[in-house]
Each structure stands twice: as structure tokens, then as C-alpha cells.
Amino acid sequence: MIPxxxxxxxxxxxxxxxxxxxxxxxPAKADPKHICFAVGPGKPGYNIxxxxxxxxxxxxxxxxxxxxxxxLTFVHKxxxxxxxxxxxxxxxxxxxxxxxxxxxxxxxxxxxxxxMHLFPPGTLFDVFASIDFTLPCNFVLNFQVWSLGxxxxxxxxxxxxxxxxxxxxxxxRDADWVDYYYSWxxxxxxxxxxxxxxxxxxxxTAFLEDKNMLEAQYRRFKEHPDGNKIDIKHDAGPxxxxxLLDKFLxxxxxxxxxxxxxxx
Length: 264
What we know:
Elements lengths: L12 E4 L2 E4 L23 E10 L3 H8 L18 H4 L3 E5 L2 E11 L15 E10 L3 E9 L13 E15 L2 E11 L7 H29 L12 H28 L1
Antiparallel strand pairs: 1-2, 3-9, 4-5, 5-6, 6-7, 7-8, 8-9
Helix pairs in contact: 1-4
């Protein structure tokens, strides 16, 4: 029996795009308009599947990993990568209210390594990626594969063959542990038997590759906290996202300190 006088703390909760969002701060400041767009498994016209991995690392390293996709070239050489196209992509970044979008075309690129067995050797495609990075730690990617077109820049004029969406959320438990929730799947119009399962299998394997890399990286940072970090061109995305995150965290801390000062 639950005692009639038992009480538990309640939190504002919103379900949107198959994600459940819990606001643990001041209930008066909970604002659903700041919840990011996503493509969930319940969206009509899509075949989306979900999964999760836990990583013993700091969430900031996970954010850095997501906002620099050049690592697909070497960390995911045998899964999501397969060429150095990710390293040389010319990225266009567009500011959003609580983040930014990165988009780019990779012309005449091989398919990701996990699907190369489906095509004759040397088959090339035009690949497009558009990613929304939004606070607190969200990543929504539209990844498309097109038949080779003739456009020299911008949108290709081939035929779209694969139109996929992945929605991902970095959710830290503490400074040393992050739970990483994600999905991947296709529009019904570009899906085929077994293809969405192949995508999820590939991303499950790839995120274990990330897990091994991030956990090793975190151990080295803890062993050598004063080590010299050198930023390169591909760190522009990570630095931008962490700057935005720190800016919002500082504002929240200022509000909290003001409340505490008034209480005293």
C-alpha cells in the first residue's frame, strides 16, 4: 500500500517525435518550443529503428565526435566510412536558434563500407548530408545517396536512391558516463527488404567503434590533464557546439545563483 501522504517530485514532460523529454529545472522555464525536430519510428512514411549504447566517457567528447564527421574516414573505415571523402567535404554551416546546421555534398563517392558488397567494384554515387546540431546535445542527420549527376556544385541532378534519417541524443549520467540513444532508417519510398536492418546493424557496430575510441581518449585525458591540445580545421564544428553549450550553461548558472541570493 502506498501511504496516502506519500509525495514525489514531479517534472514537466513532453513526448515529441517518439522521444520523451523531461525538464528537471525550474518548471516555469520549461518551454516545449525548444525541443528539437526528429524523425521517430512512429512517423508515417518512414521505417525507423532504434538502439542505445553506454559510453564511459565525458559527454563533451561525445559531442566533439558527432560534430566532426571526418573521423568516419579512419575510425569507421570498415563500417560507415570507406573513403576519405568525409575528410575533404566542404561544409556549409548555418546558424540556428539553439545550434547550427552543417550540410555538404560528396560527389562521385563510393558507398559506405558496410554496403559495398551490394554493388560492383568501383561503383560511385553522389552523397548528401544535412545535420542539425541543437542544444542540449542533439544530432539529426538526413543522409541521401543519389545516382551520379552532372552538377558541378550544389544539388545534384541525378536520381535519389536512398533517403535516410537518424536522430541521436547524448544524455550524460555524470562526468564519466553518457548514454547515447539513436535511430536510423529510410523513407518508405527508398526502402527495400532488409535495408533498414542493414543500416541499424552497421550503425550499432560503428558506435561500438566510437565507444572504444572515446573511452580510450578519456582515459588519456585523465592521465595527462595538462596535455597540449592542437585544434585543426575539422575542430570548427566541435568548438562551435561546445561554445554554444557553455554559453547556455553559464546563463542557467547565473539564474540559479540569482535565485539562491534572493533566498538568502
